[in-house]
Amino acid sequence: MTLAQQAQALTDLANMQSPKDRERLLSALIDLFDNPDALDQVDRPSVQALLEDILLKLVGQAERAIRMRLSERMAEKAWAPPALMVILALDEIDIARPVIANSPVLNDAALIRVLIEATIEHQIEVARRPNLGHAVVDTLLSQAQPAVLTAIATNDATRLSHRHLEDLVEASRRIAALRSPLSRHPQLSSALAERLYVWVGQALKESLLTRFDLDPDELTASLAQAISEAHGQGDAAGLTPTLRGLDSDQDRLDMEDRLINKLLDADQLKPSFLFRTLSEGKLSLFCRALGRLCGQNYTRMRLVIDCETPERLALACYVIGMDRSAFPTVLNTVRKLSGGFPGGGDVQSVSAVFGGQGQAEAAIMLDDVLTEAQNTQGCLTS
To answer: Which of 81, 239, 305, 364 is the most buried (most CB within 10 A)?
Structure first.
């Protein structure tokens, strides 16, 4: 009996209802195609069509245990049907993990589909896969998930472009977990090491100095200058304290961006800076700095303030680690500077925001709330 005939005989068995029978069919089928005598026939279109038909029927009605078994047995098979591998890669993460990690059948398009359609756990597994194509890395970086970025930063088996490393170093300003793997990354350049040096801890500073033979005096002087200039510009920035018409002075807005970038470089952009901006009546700088700490752009953060309830502002303050006891002062000061916004409820009405969930979950909720506000045109437009 030829391989095609054997496969055809197995097709009818794929419709069996018994889990044990389906498990037996799975083992028999994989053993059949693992036979060295079969490998020279498995690429034939007729055999591939039958093989795909059988396995897709099998996975379509299989219990979790059988899908797990199928994933484990098929993950490294070069003859596996691509459609089946995509289905398994999109399954729950325990089933998908072996396929995402090892399947030679998954091409860049299939991996990008997993990144778009599946969960963050799937994205992390893709980021750990060796020899990723640049299109896949582009998609990973564009999604900007901290855990996913950290996974790609630790993936020494994928060659990153200079632009990819630049993006990761820039992201390490706000994602501390990126700093250690980036400092050890085999493709990190001396120029990027100097940028990374600004916001890593002392132990990593010493590691970078040793690895790249950097000049510690020069780097220390640059860091001190950045801090001095940042605070100097902050004191000099006389800002209009209202949200309405904020964008009329582009030079001032550009200066705010430069100030915040310098504070980030010097690791000086902290919640305490927000209180200073409010005490000096610099509402747009407060909004811009709060957005940067939350990982949100200025346009979206304006929706936190210029709206009818204080919940968004409370959520943003909780995301950056502000204490519950400090929020009444923030809310009252923001309202004085903005002409009564955010409106609506009092402090007690939003007290549940603080501590009701983890900060990571609150950050996701804030992003969802602002996205919804933008989609419904919110209170402000960009």
So the answer is: 305
Helix, strand, coil percentages (3-state) for the chain, rounded to 5, are: 70, 0, 30
- DSSP string of 58-121? HHHS--HHHHHHHHHHHTT-TTS-HHHHHHHHTS-HHHHHHHHHH-TT--HHHHHHHHHHS-HH
Instruction: Write down the number of H helices and E strands in the chain.
Output: 22, 0
Q: Which is more confidently placed, 354 or 53?
A: 354
Quote the tokens at residue 165: 């490393």
The C-alpha angle 104, 110, 115, rounded to 5 degrees, equals 115
* pTM of structure: 0.54
Burial of 113 (0-12, 13-18, 19+ CB in 10 A): middle
Q: Where are the alpha helices (DSSP H) in 174-215?
A: 179-184, 190-197, 202-212
Q: Is the dihedral of CA 43, 47, 49, 53 positive or negative?
A: negative
pLDDT of residue 94: 94
Q: Across residues 42-54, what is the average pLDDT? A: 64
Mind listing the pLDDT tens digit for each residue in 189-216? 988 988 888 777 778 888 888 888 877 7
Structure tokens at 104: 């030679």
DSSP 311: H
